[in-house]
Amino acid sequence: xxxxxxxxxxxxxxxxxxxxxxxxxxxxxxxxxxxxxxxxxxxxxxxxxxxxxxxxxxxxxxxxxxxxxxxxxxxxxxxxxxxxxxxxxxxxxxxxxxxxxxxxxxxxxxxxxxxxxxxxxxxxxxxxxxxxxxxxxxxxxx
Length: 142
Hints:
Layout: E1 9-15, E2 26-29, E3 38-39, E4 43-46, E5 52-54, E6 63-73, E7 80-83, E8 85-86, E9 96-100, E10 105-113, E11 118-125, H1 129-140
Antiparallel strand pairs: 1-10, 2-9, 3-8, 4-5, 4-6, 6-7, 6-9, 10-11
């Protein structure tokens, strides 16, 4: 089977010091009807009111971590739903996002640069986040 070179955003691989990443994540809120989809591996920023949103290209708000999934009550079925992505404009008041915000996690990054038609890979840690993450945010979210 051939390699599948597809963009996946940011994927945790280990922690600084060589210990394995064991799945630790924190819970944040997403506002009801937030109009932008958030996918696993997307960088997110904390906004006024304590919720999170996708980090904007060139944004000045610090990145709080990497989105890893969410849970909410499905507005059509009334059942609890767990998802690797947040569907845009979900009308639920109990949306919880799971965010990898440990500053010691090292991430593998794979993005596709449409304007250059190539795939780029890099490694980034949240420990050195402000400068490098701001620069990589526009690559990951392109």
